[in-house]
Amino acid sequence: MDELDNTDKSLHGINAKDSLEQVLKECECKKYIKEIEKKYRCGYADYDDRQFYCNFLIRFYDDVKWILNITTSLRDRVKEQQWDSFHIKLVDKRIDKSILVYPDSINLEEKDKFISYKLRIHSHQTYSAIDDVVSQRELYDMIQSYAIRSLSTGKRNDLIGNDFEAMIASILSNRENYEKWVTGDRIKVGISYNYFEKIVSFFKLDKTKVKGINATSDKKEIGNLLSTGLPKTDIIVHVYYHDIDKETEHYTISCKKTNGKAVSVHQYTADAFADVLDSENSELRNILRKFQTIGNMRDFGENNIIALTKMLKPYKEKLIRWVLGGYGGKIQNDLQLANFILISDANDIYIHSLDEYVKELLKPEYVSHFGTPFSWTYASGRQGKDIQLKCKIIK
User: Fold this and answer.
1) What is the pTM of this model?
2) CA end-to-end span of the chain
3) How far is the C-alpha of 130 from the C-alpha of 74, rounded, in Å?
């Protein structure tokens, strides 16, 4: 790959700073941070009070501060950032961290250099006033994690899940991401462009035909089900085309953000299960109600387990499509049906079509309770009220 010339490198660096500023403003808007200061400078008393510099200083609501620098390549100038970080932290004792940030859109060779430098810092091979080296998205997660650390586990998980959906919608709607994808302009940075590219590539979008992309995770816009519950769709992606015969196409995504091996995917009453699977099958309805009352495999008993396993066998695929995509439920419109599954862990995102995910879960290695790929239980405090299903994560 050809190297950028000095002018392009400068523009690339400016774009990276602008991109990081957008990420920080998003954090400020969500009240994760209290204040952002660009082009922060300070110095010692009786000396030049602008001697030391960093791209950004952020302040949290507890008055803890972090200083941030972003660069598109790991060159000798990192020594300047080390020098400035060392002294800025001495000047202001409220500065808790110095973080070096790199754009998510850099190539793998350059990314490896940053990761290698990070590992040398963490393993104490390199003495460093820089505390961490992270990507744009990792920085966002660090800021979020610090800001919500005092919330209960449940509230924290809910917030992280909703925030992840909004983040993906924002990435897909980002105009610079779209322009970088269409033009291949290496000077453009975008925001989490690697996520954008992975998703639009999975959709097999033709960049020569797409006029624009907009996505939403707004619960009010997506709407509730006719039953008033939440639909499986977490994000609707609108793709606009130049072709007047095909002006718009829609993609619906269900999101799961977890570092675990399994996640809760469904919680409905036994009657809701029966209505979707076979509303005329009274035997199935009664045994589902019985499991709802008991709530666990141990006390349900071997005979009941055998009976329900046999009864669910003809409905396994129908059950999976309802649980993951909402098919068979009481929807207001087809956009409430999720046709793609997007999974995120600490390292990356993984996307599947619903058809692909269903086909995978039907394989013998995923069999769990009652011959289905789900673990059957109940949520805390909900025994006798409804049934909760958990599903293994496929990446």
Assistant:
1) 0.90
2) 31
3) 13
